[in-house]
Description:
alpha+beta; 2,3-Dihydroxybiphenyl 1,2-Dioxygenase, domain 1; 8-stranded mixed beta sheet; 3 helices
Amino acid sequence: MDMLLTEIDHVAIAVNDLEAAIAYYRDTYGCDVEHREVVEKDGVEEALLRVADSYIQLLTPSREDSTVAKFLANKGEGLHHIGYRVDSCAEALESVKGHGHRVLDEVPRPGSRGTTVAFVHPKTAFGTLIELVQENPA
């Protein structure tokens, strides 16, 4: 079987105060925000801070009914999910489903910064929410 995961795209951290988290990473580690976006569909605001060829993705809810708001209420701040880059999100998602694993997205969907994404259920993946991320040419 060929390796579907090509590299780590991002480590997502759920935070209550996005500005304070950005300041922490900037002041402590010298990381600057490379991309910032509100993803209305998911009810989150994100800030991406580049580390080598990957990102730290800071997430905060933009509305009270978002999954990140529920995560923060239940678990508090911390690691939310890992994003892995794949060449084809559709192919990787079909492989996950073909192995009998649960997914949150039955088909790939648009993600932030022009990517195509799909999520794998954490109960399938040893308690880790996994995001499959396909970068698309601009």
